Structures are given as structure tokens and as C-alpha cells.
Amino acid sequence: METKLNKTQSTLINPPTSLKGKLKFVGPGLIVAATGVGAGDFIMATIAGTSFGWSLMWVIAVGAYIKYVLSEGVGRWYLATGKTFLQGWHSLGWWATVYFGIYSVIFGIIYGAAEPAISALVITAMFPGTSFELWAIVSGVAGFVLVWFGKYEFLEKLMTVLIGIMFVTVIGSAVIILLNIGNVSYSLAPSIPEGSFFKLLGIIGGVGGSITLTSYSYWLHAKGWKGKKWIPIMKIDLGTAFTITGMFAIAVMIIAAELLFGSGTTISGNEGLLGLADTYGERFGSAARWILLIGIWVAVFTSIIGPWHGISYLFADFVRIVRNKGKSIDNDEPISEKDPAFRIYLAWMTFPPMLLLLFNQPVAIVLIYGVLGAIFMPILSIGLLILLNSKRVDPDYRNGKINNIVLGLIIMLFLYLGASELYHSFFS
């Protein structure tokens, strides 16, 4: 059966049935996965590779699976019910909607400072002596302009190109490492080396993406996927995307393990990625250093464009729900990038955060963002656990036992991570 197109609504009626046809529709998952692969995930992979070689490689697969489960839950809720994630969230009570409104306002200004700051750190490593503040502002404004003037179709194509660049640069760098591997012997057997517990949790619970995972339902809507028959393709979409991004993190771990494992070098913070690139350049030349830095920067920049677009969708939906006082909303009238609330939040994420750059503390800003992410993830998991086991979803599309167990474990994991993050932030 071929895919048909509704000319009046530009909505795909029948999804393709062949695997080749399904793979051609991969797109929304690439956006949510690329958005989630920020500097935080790369930093933790670097630290783990430096400290423990390849022995924690299995943990990256677990972390990717967790993000898959959360994103799949968001997507399945939308396709099975026809309601956006935030509409489902609102059905839990007005407290949930108010919580999201407060959280999104705080998140916007912190995240809006954190990611451009990391982008600026990478660019100043490429061009020493240039202004950190200037590059941070340019990075934020670039994301603003691309989202303001671009639509979903443009965003998907741009993200696909950027992921291609990440694939060539980062995974290519890992291949170079493997072809020139030294005499260090690595174990791939799943293990928990002594002293690795907190790093293990950091990799599994990498909070990159956090609230941006909830944007998936809006990107599905923008793609034109509606109805339960799109759920199988949605799962392929996410499975493909998180497999690719998991490969990125594994590549970084391989690079860090071969360059720094057993050297006594300790890497921490956002500068760790730059230190890794410097060491890589010392071994393979300045061109190789540049290639790796480009890959790191692209990973960071995708984490600017995606949230600038996705969280603005979420905020516009929040305003729509409040304006309608929680009453039923016709989702055949999608949220537009030209919606005033969308553009107001886009501006909120871009310009007020620039004031935080005056403090010249990019690492501290990223730490605060990490705390916010650790706080949100268990709330998201609890919401999905309730919604996907409720009568709001047809029995065939509710959670199975495995999904419920995984979500329960995610809640416990992130509650522990959140408590640890808060404790270390305020008492260490």
C-alpha cells in the first residue's frame, strides 16, 4: 500500500508498509535525539573513557534506551489519543500545568544561557583570543534566527545535515583512533569498576534533552503523523535515532579511552571536551583537532536549535490550554511557528539569558541546568506512568509490564540523581 496525501491538510493518511519505505520517514526522532545529545552526554562519555577505558560502554546503551523509552511514551500518547503531551499533562490536574508554566520560564532563561555558553567555549578553542561573550551571543542569535524564519521541514533537513557532520567528524575520529590503537587492552564485558558508581549514574541519567523529550509529540504533529497506525513507524524513527546518537557517545568514549586512559589525566567540566580535542590534536595534528572540535560544536549547536524550536511549541501549547481554561482543543488546528506565544518564548530563551553571561561563569550555569534537568525527569516519568496506564489510552496501546518496570526504575534513578545533584550543589 502506498502512502497517500491529503491535499487539503497535507497530512499523511496511510504510512508505508515496507522497511525501506518506513526508514525514509525517519525525521522527528533525529531531531529529539540530536537535541538530547548535548555537551553533558559527551562530557560524561569522555570522563568515563578516561577513567575506566571501555568497561562502561554498556552504560551508554542503557542511557540511550532510557531516552528511547521516555520519547516513545510521549509519541505513543500523542498517536494513540490525538492529544499533545501537554494536554495529557494537564489532565493530571491544574497543578501539573502550573508546574510546567513555572518550570518552563526558569528553564528557558537557564538553558538559554547554558548552551550558547558551551558553544562559545568550543568556538574560542577554535579561534583563541576571540571574545567568549561575543560567540555566546552569536550562537544564541543564530538559533533564534533559524527558528524564527524556519519551519519544521527546514528544521528536519538542517538537523539531518548536522547529524551527518557529527557522524563524519566524531565517529570518523574514533575510527582513526581504532586504526592506530595502542597496546592498551580493554575489556568489553559489562562491569561496574570500583569508583565508577557516580559516573555510571551520570551516563545513564544524562539529563541532556530532559524537557525537550516532550517536544516529540509536536514534531510528530508537524511531520503529519496522526493516528495509531503511525506507532510502528514512530518506534522505528526513535530506534534509528537513538542508535545513531548512542554511537556518537561510544565514539567519544573510545577516543578518550585510547588517548587518556591510564595516563593519570583527570578531565572534568565543559573544558574536558576541549582538553580531549587538544590531546587528539597533539597525536594526529591540528587538522584532526579541528575536525573533532567541529563535531563537538555541531553536537552543541543541535542542542540550541532543537530546544529553541521544541520548547517554544510547548510554551505555545501551555498558553493555548490556559486561554481555553483546560477545555477540549481542536488539534487539527496546529500550533504555528508564527503563534505570538511561540515567538515570545523563543525571544525569552534568546535575549534575557545574555545577561547571565556577564557573570562569566559558564560552568556554573550548566550546573544549574543539570539540576533543573534532574528535577524534571522523574516528574516526566511519573506523568507517563499515569497517562499510559489510564483509560485515556486504548488497552492495546497502554504500557506493558516491561514499560512500567523501566519507568519505575527511571523514576528511582532520577530521584537519586536529583537529590545527589542538589546535595553536591549546595553542601559541597
From TrEMBL:
Q: Which NCBIfam families does this chain map to?
A: Nramp_1
Report TM segments.
Answer: 25-45, 51-70, 91-114, 120-149, 161-181, 201-220, 241-261, 290-319, 340-359, 365-388, 400-419
* Chief localization: membrane
Q: Which UniProt keywords apply?
A: Membrane, Transmembrane, Transmembrane helix
Subcellular compartments: Membrane
The protein, known as: Mn2+/Fe2+ NRAMP family transporter
Would the keyword Transmembrane turn up in this protein's UniProt record? yes
Q: Give the species.
A: Rossellomorea pakistanensis
Q: Which domain of life is it from?
A: Bacteria
Q: Which InterPro entries match?
A: NRAMP_fam
Membrane topology reported for the UniProt record: Multi-pass membrane protein
